[in-house]
Amino acid sequence: MRRRRGTEDGVDWARFGEQLAAMARDLLAQTSVDATLERITSSAVELVDGCEAAGILILRGKDVETLAPTHPLVVDSDRLQARNGEGPCFDAARNVHGERVFRIFDVTREQPRWPAYAAEARALGVGSMMGFLLFTEDEDLGALNLYSRRPGAFTQADETAGVLLASHAAVAFSSARTHAQLERALSTRHTIGEAMGILMGRHHLSEDEAFDVLRRYSQENNIKLRDVAEQVCAHGRFSQP
């Protein structure tokens, strides 16, 4: 999204809508979760005026993971937020007080809400930034974060554009994860079925008996059922615990 004279808020929203629709179709065409995430962050840089870098921050308990960063600055910023336990992207991922969007207009100014992070972010060269919660109706997925080295790079119009982009991105992210989980489930089912067939043939077991053997070994040795099945498929027997 690039600003043009004579358009509302300096933004050609009709053109942006066309670009967003094309991005949405492109996201759903990606073949993996990683590819989807990379397309989301690259689209942020392409479509949001002033955005020089983007990434997705995921919180797993107290652990922070950076996904699909377009620049090392994103990784460095997320590490700062994790170390200090504060920051706009950190808050966006936690959905603090129900807020879904955070914007620091000028990181070079004092930031009472995130004093420790802001001071170190300035040293990294961050001038302004925005964070958007990636969400669907039933799950929070993390935050899409946009960066610029220039203070005041992001306007209210850019924030609106970011919200629209994040909404499409959340749906695509959730869809990609669901598809990946389904593929893993089908693969696991196939592997377990193959392992059961091996046990049934070698030990003259019924289907239920073969599954019970796999299940008991899994529980007694604290090994995932899929991993037990893979052992049997690979070696024709259980590996020694």
List the defining traits of the structure above.
five-stranded antiparallel sheet, alpha+beta, 14% strand, disordered N terminus, 241 residues
Question: Could you please describe the fold and organization of this structure?
Answer:
By secondary structure, this protein is an alpha+beta fold. The chain contains 8 helices and 5 strands. It has a 5-stranded antiparallel β-sheet with strand order 2-1-5-4-3, with helices on both faces. β4 (about 130-135) and β5 (about 140-150) form a beta hairpin. It is elongated. The relative contact order is 0.12. Mean pLDDT is about 85; it is low at about 1-5.
Give the topology, please:
Layout: H1 13-28, H2 33-47, E1 53-60, E2 63-67, H3 72-84, H4 88-94, E3 101-104, H5 115-124, E4 128-135, E5 140-148, H6 156-203, H7 207-221, H8 225-235
Antiparallel strand pairs: 1-2, 1-5, 3-4, 4-5
Helix pairs in contact: 1-2, 1-6, 2-6, 3-5, 6-7, 6-8, 7-8
Provide a brief overview of the structure:
The chain is α+β, with helices and mostly antiparallel strands. The protein has helices at residues 13-28, 33-47, 72-84, 88-94, 115-124, 156-203, 207-221, 225-235; strands at residues 53-60, 63-67, 101-104, 128-135, 140-148. The longest helix has 48 residues, at 156-203.
